[in-house]
């Protein structure tokens, strides 16, 4: 009986050792995944710092895909909790106080002088209601509802729209060569007007 007890004790010790090994490997894996996550977040910050929206969008797309793969490959890490909504990372990191997500263009109010930057993956615009579209041309000028507007007029338009329909979606279509500060200005105006979330349009790669 004593011998059987020793055998059982040895087996339990072996199982504990295996469990410890699994936990250690999981911990190492999670640490590695978090390091890669931080590297991806750095890519997003670098993209925003590069100044041009097109460059920021390209870095965002690469980083987002990498983060999604990390969440899939390392479920034991806390990345999934960090990235509750990956589409919000871009604006969340570049503007911090603003929220937004990348979305596909599906509206009629287009300004043909705006060349959208490419980005993939993207999230399609949901719902049938047409969004309020603010176009930003390469020279930094604004067009909304088919009319050229200055920043003051854009702010007034956003405030009136928020009063009429707080659930209205706001879509910013900016030229890919424009400085990101112009986009940030419109996002800030939309936030101040009462829109909790503003969207940026990007051209989907084929």
Topology:
Elements: H1 2-49, H2 53-73, H3 79-82, H4 89-94, E1 102-104, E2 132-136, E3 142-144, E4 147-149, H5 151-164, E5 170-174, H6 180-193, E6 198-202
Parallel strand pairs: 1-6, 2-5, 5-6
Antiparallel strand pairs: 2-3, 3-4
Helix pairs in contact: 1-2, 5-6
Describe this structure in a few short sentences:
It is built from 6 helices and 6 strands.
Q: What is the N-to-C order of secondary-structure elements (H for helix, E for strand)?
A: HHHHEEEEHEHE
What is the name of the CATH class of the largest domain? Alpha Beta
Helix content: 40-55%
Q: What's the architecture of the largest domain in CATH terms?
A: 2-Layer Sandwich
Average pLDDT level? 64
- First CA to last CA: what distance? 72 Å
Radius of gyration: 24 Å
Main β-sheet, in a few words? 6 strands, mixed
SS-based class: alpha/beta
Strand content: 5-15%
Catalogue the unreliable spans: 1-13, 83-114, 119-126
CATH topology of the largest domain: Nucleotidyltransferase, domain 5
Strand segment tally: 6
Strand line-up of the largest beta sheet: 1-6-5-2-3-4
Number of domains: 2
Which term fits the overall shape? elongated
User: Helical region count?
Assistant: 6
């Amino acid at each position: 009986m004593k011998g059987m007890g020793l055998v059982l004790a040895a087996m339990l010790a072996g199982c504990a050792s295996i469990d410890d090994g699994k936990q250690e490997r999981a911990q190492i894996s999670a640490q590695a995944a978090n390091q890669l996550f931080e590297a991806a977040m750095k890519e997003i910050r670098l993209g925003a710092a590069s100044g041009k929206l097109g460059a920021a969008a390209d870095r965002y797309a690469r980083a987002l895909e990498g983060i999604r793969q990390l969440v899939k490959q390392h479920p034991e890490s806390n990345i999934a909790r960090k990235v509750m909504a990956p589409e919000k990372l871009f604006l969340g990191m570049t503007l911090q106080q603003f929220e937004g997500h990348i979305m596909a263009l599906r509206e009629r109010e287009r300004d043909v002088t705006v060349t959208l930057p490419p980005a993939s993956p993207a999230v399609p615009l949901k719902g049938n209601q047409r969004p309020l579209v603010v176009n930003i041309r390469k020279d930094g000028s604004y067009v909304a509802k088919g009319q050229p507007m200055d920043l003051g007029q854009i702010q007034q338009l956003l405030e009136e729209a928020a009063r009429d329909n707080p659930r209205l979606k706001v879509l910013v279509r900016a030229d890919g060569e424009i400085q990101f500060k112009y986009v940030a200005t419109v996002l800030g105006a939309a936030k101040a007007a009462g829109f909790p979330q503003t969207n940026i349009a990007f051209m989907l790669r084929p």
